[in-house]
Design brief:
This is Lipoprotein. By secondary structure, the chain is of the alpha+beta class. It has one domain: Gyrase A, domain 2, CATH 3.30.1360. Strands 1-2-4-3-5 form a five-stranded antiparallel beta sheet. Strand 3 and strand 4 form a beta hairpin. Helix 2 packs across helix 3. It is globular, with a radius of gyration of 19 Å. The N terminus is likely disordered.
Amino acid sequence: MRAALLPIMALAACDATPDAPSGAVRYDGIETRLLDGDLVNFKVRMTNAATNDDVADYAKCAAAQYALIRGFGFARNVRTLVDEEGGIWTGDAVYTISSALPRGSRTIDAEVTVAECARRDIPTV
């Protein structure tokens, strides 16, 4: 019986996905919620981020892709809250999305931002 199990266990080991290196940044998910019309909430989770900006960038990438999915070309950051506990970082960001460039200084061009996120290997929705 033991001899029959060894080949099966060996195959299972080949299919196992290696763990990320200890201390590596890991993007653990995005939760998107439409609040009202053009107002969208993004909750992101990361492990081993270096700074608050890393978490904010993850949320920004999610917002840019979401805007494109909904047929809009722009987004504007309303607010981003970042928290860290035990190496787990969370972000809670709110963006407006629009077809025209919104007023304000924290606006993003969704296409340009999604391309930059891909270049930096930051996942989007």
